[in-house]
């Protein structure tokens, strides 16, 4: 009986994997980033990120946050519901990103701004000194 249940479950999983995805994941540009003038070492601070959802098919997933030494790449990860159709009204959003200042070097933030005509990524770079 256990083998039969395993076979049925396997067939179900295989049949479902051939269906088109219900959601798509992507990264949206940041419209505006408000950073503090400086950080204080071993404290926490906040950056305010403003972004625009293209329409109600999109919803916030998380903040893309990649770091390498003192550089930080920041973008907005979203999920698009591909099964539904919505009007094309954009939705402006804002999120507060907590920053735990654990390094003494200046922080270099590279905020994702989209792609240029050649498909190359565009970033706005802001340096925040650490006191």
- Please report the distance between the alpha carbons of the first and last residues: 67 Å
Number of strands: 8
In N-to-C order, the SSE pattern is HEEEEEEEE
Radius of gyration: 20 Å
Number of domains: 1
Average pLDDT across residues? 88
Uncertain runs are: 1-12
Share of β-strand residues: over 45%
- Could you say which overall geometry the principal axes of the C-alpha atoms support? elongated
Short description:
The protein is mainly β and 131 residues long. It has one domain (21-128).
Characterise this structure:
This protein is mainly beta. It is 12% helix and 52% strand. Strands 1, 4, 5, 7 and 8 form a five-stranded mixed β-sheet that branches. A three-stranded antiparallel β-sheet has the order 2-3-6, with no helix packed on it. The longest helix is centred in the first third of the chain and has 16 residues, at 2-17.
Name the descriptors.
single chain; five-stranded mixed beta sheet; 131 residues; disordered N terminus
SSE layout and pairing:
Layout: H1 2-17, E1 23-28, E2 32-34, E3 44-53, E4 58-68, E5 71-81, E6 91-100, E7 107-115, E8 121-128
Parallel strand pairs: 5-7
Antiparallel strand pairs: 1-5, 2-3, 3-6, 4-5, 7-8
